[in-house]
């Protein structure tokens, strides 16, 4: 498990492109036959991916957690962006199709990821946050995620939002998780932009056509910085930073948060004319 330390807006404003990428971009989320984990000191979130092929992958407990098992003091959200697969939690098997989500309770000791077809493997995107209360392990399919239509073609941000782990959905201690799919011909996500000083956020960009990219913007509203992001790469967004992006085609992204609350609407809008 690699680590990313938290930095503030003043230091971020001095970074060049390679420095921005080093601190805020996670380039390797999915590796065939492996589990990738990145520990960020923004709200102690762990961001990762599990891509099982011919054999199941067991969630490890990195020594740096100083725990007896990974979820001893944590909760986990897993959202599948690949082929069909299963997650087994303490002997109970949960089937997850493409864009289905599973919340795994604090206290779960054994978590294993498997693919139904090694030639079309499942890709489980993982988010884990510290937990202080037990909530039941629960699955929610995309069909159950109550889609919300937002944006408009005129502003190039017409999109469908699927909410999985949040205040009115799957219950958690502090983890929030959902998915946004932009419609064809639309390229802007999270526009108008905003911050939420009470929560950090992580983005996974996916379903990006071959050769296409997203230009992700982060930083304080008056000190924004660009990052070119490829398919199935993730962005760490500090609480003080905006998080918005524009793609060279339509795409999808998973958003996940940890911090003070689980209210989807807790955000501080940034008017377009104040961005720099």
TrEMBL record:
**Alphabetized UniProt keyword annotations:** Isomerase, Metal-binding, Zinc
Q: What is its EC number?
A: 5.3.1.17
**What GO MF annotations does this protein's record show?**
4-deoxy-L-threo-5-hexosulose-uronate ketol-isomerase activity
| Necessary cofactors | Zn(2+)
Quote the CDD domains the UniProt record gives.
Answer: cupin_KduI_C (cd20491), cupin_KduI_N (cd20294)
Which InterPro entries does this entry report, sorted A to Z? Answer: KduI, KduI/IolB_isomerase, KduI_N, RmlC-like_jellyroll, RmlC_Cupin_sf
Give the pathway listed in the UniProt entry for this protein: Glycan metabolism; pectin degradation; 2-dehydro-3-deoxy-D-gluconate from pectin: step 4/5
Q: Where does Zn(2+) bind?
A: 194, 196, 201, 243
The record describes how the cofactor is bound as: Binds 1 zinc ion per subunit.
Q: Does the keyword Transmembrane helix apply?
A: no
State the reactions this protein catalyses: 5-dehydro-4-deoxy-D-glucuronate = 3-deoxy-D-glycero-2,5-hexodiulosonate
What the protein does comes down to: Catalyzes the isomerization of 5-dehydro-4-deoxy-D-glucuronate to 3-deoxy-D-glycero-2,5-hexodiulosonate.
Tell me the PANTHER family matching this sequence.
4-DEOXY-L-THREO-5-HEXOSULOSE-URONATE KETOL-ISOMERASE
Entry-linked NCBIfam families: PRK00924.1
Q: What family is it from?
A: Belongs to the KduI family.
What protein name is recorded for this chain?
4-deoxy-L-threo-5-hexosulose-uronate ketol-isomerase
Q: Which gene encodes it?
A: kduI
């Amino acid at each position: 498990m690699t680590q990313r330390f938290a930095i503030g807006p003043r230091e971020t404003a001095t970074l060049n492109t390679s420095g921005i990428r080093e601190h805020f971009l996670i380039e390797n989320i999915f590796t065939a036959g492996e589990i990738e984990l990145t520990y960020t000191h923004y709200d102690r979130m762990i961001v990762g991916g599990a891509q099982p092929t011919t054999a199941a992958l067991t969630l490890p407990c990195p020594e740096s957690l100083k725990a007896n098992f990974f979820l001893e003091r944590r909760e986990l959200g897993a959202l599948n962006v690949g082929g069909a697969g299963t997650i087994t939690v303490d002997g109970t098997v949960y089937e997850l199709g493409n864009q289905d989500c599973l919340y795994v309770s604090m206290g779960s000791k054994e978590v294993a990821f498997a693919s139904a077809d090694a030639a079309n493997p499942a890709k489980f995107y993982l988010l884990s946050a510290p937990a202080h209360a037990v909530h039941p392990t629960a699955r929610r399919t995309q069909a159950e995620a109550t889609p919300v239509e937002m944006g408009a073609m005129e502003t190039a941000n017409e999109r469908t939002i699927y909410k999985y782990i949040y205040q009115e959905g799957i219950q958690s201690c502090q983890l929030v998780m959902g998915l946004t799919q932009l419609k064809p011909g639309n390229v802007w996500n999270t526009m108008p932009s905003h911050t939420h000083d009470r929560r950090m956020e992580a983005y996974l960009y996916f379903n990006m056509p071959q050769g296409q990219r997203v230009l992700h913007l982060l930083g304080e509203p008056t000190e924004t910085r660009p990052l070119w992001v490829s398919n199935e790469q993730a962005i760490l967004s500090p609480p003080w930073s905006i998080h918005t992006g524009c793609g060279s085609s339509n795409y999808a992204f998973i958003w996940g948060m940890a911090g003070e609350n689980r209210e989807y609407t807790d955000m501080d809008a940034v008017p377009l004319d104040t961005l720099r």
